[in-house]
Amino acid sequence: MRSTVASFRKAFTPKHATGRPVVRVSQVPVQGTTAVVPAKDITVGGQPLSRILLTNSSGFKPGQVQARADVTRIGGTWYVSNSTSMSAAVPPEHSDPLPGSRR
């Protein structure tokens, strides 16, 4: 678990960041007590999360990584819910075939 959290921290932190970068979220439409925040509307240390993910990736190009945070308001405070999602179109040179399959 610790290595997984460390890999998330690395992926979601701008290169050359020091200390604890400030995270800011743009105002997005709210439906009741939930909202969906695209990665482009989340900044970490002044950089859009979408750019950070791309910069820290290994070969992805603009448009191949889609990320968002599904958030829920509980008692007046917003929390990232369990349904945070990220998807990416994997470049062929980085995809491993399933055992027994052919490229």
Automatic annotation (TrEMBL):
This is Uncharacterized protein. The lineage of its organism: Bacteria, Bacillati, Actinomycetota, Actinomycetes, Kitasatosporales. It comes from Actinacidiphila oryziradicis. Residues 84-103 are annotated as: Disordered.
